[in-house]
Amino acid sequence: MKKILASAALAALAALAFPACATPRRDGEIIGDYKEITAVELGEKLNTFGQNGLFGDSNEEDWKFGADIENNIGFEAEARTAEGGSPVFFCGAELTGQTQFVMTKQQENAQLKAKSSQRLTGNFGNGKKTNCSVVIYCGGKNVYFALSGLDGFMGTKDGKYFAECDPVKKVGAALSYLQKNTAELPEIMQKYKLKAFWDGSAGIKLKLSADQSSAYAALARATGLAEEKVRTDVKFDTCTAELYLETDADGGFIRAGLIMDMDCKFDLGGEVFGSPVSGYFKLKADISAEKFAGEIILPSAEELAEYKKTDCLKK
User: Fold this and answer.
1) Is 32 within 8 Å of 199 (Cβ atoms)?
2) Per-residue model confidence as pLDDT tens digits over 231-264
3) Rounded CA gap, 181 and 31, in Å?
4) Would you kindly state where each structural domain of the chain is located, as residue ranges?
């Protein structure tokens, strides 16, 4: 169980390059009577829970796991190569959507059904406002996606396409990574200066909190620069992140959430990009996930026959 939650924390740390600040009762927040605990105390508490895994025992013949994920992510960024010069990069956009998936095991074979609807609106520096959407279906060994509103954005045309990529294998690998990763949560907390809060009144409610210190530690590791150098080059006005996880008494997944807010300015030398770059970055994100036991209805075979094959997902 310790390794399971350590893996969940490690996955969230990928977002700490864009850390954030939580506000009460936003989507993704899990309310609880939390008490701060140390990394050692958390490790001891996790050892008392069951070992079936965060997503259940996939070795069981009737294993099934599903999740319903909602995302609302807004971001804005600008970069300049010279002080006072024209921006070489600008974007300001919002990505909203919902993803549902269910994995099952039948006669030793895993099966996946999934649907995701996403909408992207904003300005990507091309003088046009982008308002596009994508609907994605996963079934069998193919991924199907219907694109609309792109109008040539990033060289992509509207239409219906499918690609071979074995989504069962990819989603299964992601779940396995989260469930079996060998990283230790106490070590992660110390490495990235996280704080842990615990509510064990019924099952587990865990909150991991990150602030500017966590962000500087993560950025230093990502760039290879000394943390003192990162603190000089990057200045945060707002910077915290909160990762929530709730499980039942046996450590089985119930829900999770991630809340982020970040507002920073940067003035980087040539160590990272090869030439000096300055600018700013803002991010606000609410992501929530709940266990999903419903059914996902895919389009009919006749409807899927309208999709054209593409190699865009090949390595």
Assistant:
1) yes
2) 999 999 999 999 999 998 888 899 999 999 999 9
3) 27
4) 2-309
